[in-house]
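Figure 3 (text version): structure tokens given as input.
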């Protein structure tokens, strides 16, 4: 049985929290971390996913197909990619050895560096999807590599975080100024439906409150809202993500239940009503079945 400390380690001290709603990844306690793709174990395939952190990725080796929202990109030359936490992405490597760098950083990191936040807002590389995937010209590549190497070696140094955020600004400025935007292809009907499903799921969860419960909770309800047959929606989600509609809904609701238990003073009755349960005992059963703890025990163990 997990102890109170285990719960804290799993649900509070995780540097980069569980990806919502599919692929899950953890790192250490730093707000930002830089990775060398030649050293790290880069995955050949990454199913459609969303994360709770920003990501900048430079691919210099390892061709593949990258999907961002409704757009598909054939990556066969040096490419810089700026990924917002809300973006739905996928990756399929097709050939070659992985090379390049990537970095991950939290929203809190941006809030602690106003100049970085201002540059991000001004250049809109993370928010404007037409600017998020950039082809790096051969003449510009050495300069980008030097920036990445500088960031990589600043990790662990005194004032390293301040230096890294400055390098990020330079990299964004150079990306916006010197490079060409990649030309996307349509990602296809399956990804269109998947994108709509996750968008609808996030919209439902973002509107949760204890005065008006969530409207859509079942595969049938989501499929009806999208004017699709539930079997078809289940099939494409299972094919593209490895999980069916119900598992995605359950996982997202569990994440939200944990957040409500930890970050609000709502009663268990209010939380159970907000996430669509007819009574608190059913909510308690759902939460304990999927976490091993009752909602009350989870809240007390983590917050004590």
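Below: residues designed for each position.
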């Amino acid at each position: 049985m997990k102890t109170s400390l285990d719960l804290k380690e799993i649900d509070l001290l995780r540097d980069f929290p569980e990806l919502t709603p599919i692929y899950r990844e953890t790192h250490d306690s730093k707000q930002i971390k830089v990775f060398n793709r030649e050293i790290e174990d880069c995955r050949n395939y990454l199913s459609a996913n969303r994360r709770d952190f920003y990501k900048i990725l430079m691919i210099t080796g390892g061709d593949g197909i990258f999907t961002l929202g409704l757009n598909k990109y054939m990556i066969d030359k040096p490419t810089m990619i700026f990924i917002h936490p809300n973006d739905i992405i996928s990756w399929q490597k097709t050939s070659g050895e992985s090379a390049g760098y990537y970095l991950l950083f939290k929203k809190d990191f941006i809030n602690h560096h106003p100049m970085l936040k201002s540059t991000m807002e001004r250049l809109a590389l993370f928010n404007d999807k037409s600017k998020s995937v950039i082809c790096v010209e051969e003449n510009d590549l050495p300069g980008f590599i030097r920036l990445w190497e500088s960031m990589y070696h600043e990790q662990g140094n005194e004032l390293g975080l301040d230096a890294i955020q400055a390098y990020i600004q330079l990299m964004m400025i150079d990306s916006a100024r010197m490079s060409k935007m990649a030309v996307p292809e349509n990602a296809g009907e399956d990804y269109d439906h998947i994108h709509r499903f996750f968008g609808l799921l996030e919209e439902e969860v973002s509107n949760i409150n204890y005065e008006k419960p969530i409207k859509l909770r079942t595969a049938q309800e989501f499929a009806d809202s999208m004017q699709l047959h539930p079997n078809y929606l289940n099939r494409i989600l299972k094919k593209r993500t490895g999980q069916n509609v119900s598992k995605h809904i359950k996982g997202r609701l569990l994440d939200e239940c944990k957040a409500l238990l930890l970050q609000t003073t709502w009663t268990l009755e209010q939380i159970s009503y907000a996430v669509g349960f007819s009574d608190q005992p059913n909510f308690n059963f759902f939460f304990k079945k999927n976490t091993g703890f009752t909602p009350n025990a989870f809240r007390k163990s983590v917050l004590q």
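The longest strand covers residues 89-105.
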